[in-house]
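so im writing up the methods section and need the Phytoene desaturase record in one place, dumping it here so i stop losing it
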Amino acid sequence: MSKKVCVIGGGFGGLSAAALLAHKGFDVTLLEKNPGVGGRAQVWRQDGFVFDMGPSWYLMPEVFDQFFEYLGKNRADYYKLQQLDPYYRIFFSPDEIIDINRDLDRTKEIFDRFEPGGGERLQRYLDGARYKYDIAMREFLYTEYRSMFQFFNRRILVEGTRMNIFQSLDRYVGKYFSDRRAKQILEYAMVFLGASPRNAPALYSIMSHVDLNLGVYFPIGGMAALVDGFRQLAEDMGVRILTDHEVTGLKVENGQITAAKTAHGEVNADIFLSNADYQHTDQKLLPPEYRSYSSRYWDKRTMAPTMFIIYLGLNRKVPELVHHNLYFSDPWDEHFEQIFSRPQWPDNPSYYVSCASFDDDLVAPAGKENIFFLVPLAAGLEDTDQIREQYAEKILDHFENLIGTRIRDAIEIRRLFSHRDFQSEYNAYKGTALGIAHTLNQTAIFRPSHRSKKVKNLFYSGQYTHPGVGVPMTVISSQVIGSNIAESCR
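--- predicted struct ---
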C-alpha cells in the first residue's frame, strides 16, 4: 500500500497501532510531543536510579505475546519477563500483613482464615472469573462497536446475565464474601481501571482471574524495557518515529484531515490515528465544526482517577517491602467517595507502593532502593506545591507507622508528580492519569468512538476507547482499529 498514516502520540496504543499498520504495508510516521516514546510510561533516571513513572504492573501476558506473533515476531526477542513471587503484599494494618503468591492453595488458606469456607468460595469465584475472561477475550474485547445494535446483539443478551454485565462488582463479590479483607483483595484492581467497585460492572471480576490465575509478571529492566521493545518493534516494521514533535493542530479540508501541524512544519498523510489524550484531540486540535463531542459531553464524563506519586531513591534497602505492595484503609469506601462523589484529597487513603529494586538490580545502585508511592485521587483537584508537600508528609507518616521503620533519613532523591504534571506532560484532561472511568454507562459502545463522527480519515486508540484502561487494553484497542483500517483500505 502507498497510503500514508500519521499516528499522533507514542504511548503503547500509538506504538502498537503504528507497528501494525506498517506491517500491513502503510507508510507510517509517528509524532510524539515528548523527548521519548512511551506516553505515560516515561522513565526518570537520576544518580543511578531508574523510575517507571507510569504503569508498573505487567498483566495479561498472552495479549502481548499474541500481538507480537500477529506481526510475525517473538516477544522474547524484544524484552524478557520474570514472574513475580510473591505477586504482591497487602498491609491491612501494622499487625496484619499477607502475601499473595503463585500458590493458589496458599491464597485459599488465607481466605479460609478470613471466613469459614472462604477458600472454596474463592475457587468458585475464580472459576466464574475465568469463564467471563475467556468469553470476553473471544467475543467482546477484540471487537469495534460502531452501533448500539452491534453491542446489544444476541450473543451479549445470552451471555450478559452470566457475565454479570448489568450488576455492580461490589454487589457481586458480596454474594461470595462478607469479610472486608476478602472483598478488598477481589476489588482493588478497579482503582487501576479507574472505577469504584460500587459502580463498575461485575464483568470486571475477570481481573481476579488475571492476577490470581494468570499471574503477575515484570519486564527485566522495568517497564522501560517494555517501551524499548515496542519502539524497536515499530522501527523494525518500518515506522518513522519523530520525538519532540508536538501536534498543535489538525488541518481539515472538506471533512478530511490533510496535515498535522507541528513546530517543525506540517506532516501530511492520508489517514490520521490519535493516541493522544482523546479530549485534547477532539477539543483542542480540531476546528470546532469537526469535533465529535461537545464540551458538555466531556464535562459530564465520570473521570477515572489521577495519581499523586512520590518517587524516592533510598540509600538502603527496606526489607518490609516486596515488589508490589498495597495498603487498604478501613473503611475504604470513604476513599472512593472522595474520588467519585465528593472530590477532595483523601483523608484516609488506600495506596500502592512499588519497590522494583526488590526483583531488579538494574533500577537502583547496589544496596539501594527504588520505591514510589501512588495514591489515587479525583481528577481536577487543586494541585499546588504546598498541598503536595503536606500530602507527601501525610503519606510518609502513615507508611513509617505502618512498617515500623523510618525511611526519611534514607532519602537520596525525591520527586512529586500529580495533576498538573499529567496535564503538562500528556495533555491529560483534568489531569487524569487514566482517562474516563469504567462505569456501566462508559463501557464498550458507551466509550468514545474509535472513529471520528465528522472527519472521515481520523481514528482513535488508547485508554478512552474500547476496551479501556490499562496497557493490555490499549494494545487490544490498537489491534482492533488498526486491523479495521487496513481492511477498509484493501
